[in-house]
Amino acid sequence: MEELKKVSPSQKFENLIKDYLNQGKEKLENDLVGTREAIKIIAKDKTRNFMRTMDFGLNEEERNCLHQLIITSMYQSFCYGYGIGKIEGETKQKVRL
Predict the structure, then answer these.
(1) What is the pTM (predicted TM-score) of this model?
(2) Per-residue pLDDT for 10 more than 90?
(3) For residues 71 and 74, what is the distance between their CA atoms, to the nearest angstrom?
(4) 35-50: b or e for each residue (b if 16 or more CB lie within 10 Å)?
(5) Which of 13, 65, 70, 84 could be 43's S-S partner, Cβ–Cβ 3.0 to 4.6 Å?
């Protein structure tokens, strides 16, 4: 039984970052409507810039796919940044993944 209670430091870190990632996701979905909208606008601009830079047209389905990919990546980046910031605030140490 005692072996089950022993949690390695890396497991504690993993659990903590998962909790904070979920908190970041909740915040983004519920509290930070402006940030969410800004991400969508930036993603649309990035899609247009991609097409212009590559001198390559995309049909509507391809544009939507790229747009969603960029949005998802930015949401994930926000959540990781939020989680890492929370951990650094608690530990007073820089976190490197």
Answers:
(1) 0.76
(2) no
(3) 5
(4) ebeebeeebeebbeee
(5) 70
Given pLDDT bands bounded at 50, 70 and 90, which one contains residue 1? very low
CA atoms within 13 A on the CB side of 32: 16
Q: Which two tokens stand for residue 92?
A: 């007073």
For residue 31, give both structure tokens: 């509290």
Q: How many residues does the chain have?
A: 97
How far, CA to CA in Å, does 56 sit from each of 2, 39, 48, 49, 51?
61, 23, 10, 10, 5
- Give dist(CA 13, CA 74) in Å, integer: 23
* Block residue for tokens 């993993």: 14
Contact status, residue 43 vs residue 35, Cβ threshold 8 Å: no
